[in-house]
Amino acid sequence: MTKIFKRYWPYLKEYKFYYFIVLIGILLTVAATAATAQIMKPLMDDMFIARDPDMLLYIPLMLVAIYFAKSLGRYLQSVYMNYIGLSMVTRLREVLLEKILYLDMKMLYANRSGEMISRVTNDIGRVQYFVSNMLPELVREVLTVVGLVAYVIYLSPELSFYALVVLPLVIYPLVLIAKRLKKLSHRSQEKSADVMTRLTEVFNNNEIIKAHATEKFELKRFSSENWRFFKINMKG
Fold first, then answer.
1. Which of 24, 114, 120, 167 could form a disulfide with 200 if both were Cys (CB 3.0 to 4.6 A apart)?
2. pLDDT tens, 154-190?
3. Cβ neighbours around 77 below 10 Å, total
4. pLDDT digits 0-9 by tens, 185-205
5. Is the pTM of this model over 0.70?
6. Which of 77, 103, 78, 94 is nearest to 23 (CA)?
7. Count of other CB atoms within 10 angstroms of residue 198
8. DSSP codes joined into one string, the chain
């Protein structure tokens, strides 16, 4: 994760203002989530059991305010992260293509055209997913966990101690799963390049394929790569 931040920081730092708005949206979402947990007790005790007439008015209004804040927070995250992701991907495509165009012929011959196309399309798309989805989700979930843990400690320090002891035992398997998914993601990129290469070969050599009547052979080759790509994606 640190390497990813270092690599993309020159691009990310240009969107500081937009990330600040996203952070506001995340804080609104986290605060609304914590407030939802906080309001459950008066909702049950004062509204449903005690039937306090004042609470019958205030709690519905508070619920509306909480969910409005949560919706506003998610809206800010969605709109501005989508803008950041699309804008960055658009720029990276141009930068990457410029790098490829100025490579020497030896490097161009050494790399398959399908692989280079995959770099410009699929790999850049993964960057957009990281910037638009993974990064804000990571921040939001971390802040949500911190907020809810703080609230649990406030309610019952003793019970929260047991929860915090069990929590690392739950996180460890998730770390192992994340490492496996990372390996599968790399293999998926390689297979995506293979599929692109097969398609490029077919489209660029269509006349030769027709002349030698090798349609079935080419279809079989493509089908093999295509289903390998499918199996790797299913594992991920």
1. 114
2. 777 776 676 677 666 767 777 777 777 667 666 676 6
3. 23
4. 666 766 777 777 777 777 778
5. no
6. 77
7. 20
8. -HHHHHHHHHHHGGGHHHHHHHHHHHHHHHHHHHHHHHHHHHIIIIIIIS--HHHHHHHHHHHHHHHHHHHHHHHHHHHHHHHHHHHHHHHHHHHHHHHHHTS-HHHHHHS-HHHHHHIIIIIHHHHHHIIIIIHHHHHHHHHHHHHHHHHHHHH-HHHHHHHHHHHHHHHHHHHHHHHHHHHHHHHHHHHHHHHHHHHHHHHHTHHHHHHHT-HHHHHHHHHHHHHHHHHHHHH-
Neighbours of 235 (CB within 10 A): 12
Phi and psi dihedrals of 67, rounded to 5? -75, -25
141 and 103 Cβ atoms separated by less than 8 Å: no
User: Amino acid letter at 191?
Assistant: K
Place of tokens 């993974």: 134
